[in-house]
Each structure stands twice: as structure tokens, then as C-alpha cells.
């Protein structure tokens, strides 16, 4: 079977559907990251993944934490029964693009192992206490904690 490499257009990703998330992304991008980095007082990043079905770049705003140069995000999906699509995308294609404030860079994402997840969970719920509520609502689904390294 022949495979053809297709260049990913990381510069023109698909953004969220109309609504508050799209407005957040537009503010973040139009200001070059000077505005929008803090959302309700919580730090957010823009994660761009390669959509596993369409092959297009897709951008998602997410709350994040930091540890030793790594970025931490939770695939909460507000406690729904399924993992958010961005998580499935990065599992299939771990090469991602990230914007944190005014800095934008290529990175790799991976799911934290059980020990890492346990280590970082408290830090993430300190940033956004609703993660604990989402975890309860999602049961039996476990909310993956993702580590992003540049």
C-alpha cells in the first residue's frame, strides 16, 4: 500500500464551534497571547492536535499547570462519558503545537502513567477545583492527565 505524506497546515487550524470557547481562542490568537492566557483567573494554553480522521490541525483552549518545564492538562471533557476528541487526536498523533501566552512551539504529548497522574492531580485541582467534580461525573471513565514536553 502506498502512503502519501501530507503537510499539516499548523498555521490555520480548525477552531471550536461558535460560542464562549471560540471567543476565547479568537481573543487569545488576535492578541498574540497577551490577552486570553488567563481565563477566569486560571492559566490556559492553546493545544493544536492533528485530527485523527480528517488530518487537519485542530485548536483547543485548555487549563494547564506546570512542573519542571512540562505542561499538564486534563482530558476532562466536563465529566462526559467519553474522552474529548483532542485527547484521542494526541494519542493517535503525539506531535502537537502549543501556545502559552505569547510563546508558541512544537511539542510532544503523552498520557501520564498512574504514578504521575497521582502526583499531579492535586496540583491540577488546586488550579481548577471542578476537575474533581468532572472526575465524579465521568465515572467509570478515568480522566487522563496529559504531559506536554517541548
Q: Output the radius of gyration.
A: 15 Å
> Which residues sit in consecutive blocks of at least 5 with pLDDT less than 50?
none
Number of helices: 4
**How many domains in all?**
1
Structure, described:
It catalyses: oxidized coenzyme F420-(gamma-L-Glu)(n) + a quinol + H(+) = reduced coenzyme F420-(gamma-L-Glu)(n) + a quinone. The chain is of the alpha+beta class. The protein has a single domain (20-149), classed as Pnp Oxidase, Chain A. Helices cover 28% and strands 31% of the residues. It contains four helices and eight strands, in the order αβββββαββααβ. The radius of gyration is 15 Å and the shape is globular.
Offer a few descriptive terms:
150 residues; alpha+beta; Pnp Oxidase, Chain A; 8 strands; 28% helix; globular; F420H2_quin_Rdtase; Split_barrel_FMN-bd; Nitroreductase/quinone reductase family protein
What can be said about this structure in brief?
This protein has helices at 20-30, 85-92, 114-127, 130-138; strands at residues 38-39, 42-50, 57-63, 65-67, 70-74, 95-100, 103-111, 145-149. With 150 residues, the chain is an alpha+beta fold.
List the helices and strands and how they pair.
Blueprint: H1 20-30, E1 38-39, E2 42-50, E3 57-63, E4 65-67, E5 70-74, H2 85-92, E6 95-100, E7 103-111, H3 114-127, H4 130-138, E8 145-149
Antiparallel strand pairs: 1-2, 2-3, 2-6, 4-5, 5-8, 6-7, 7-8
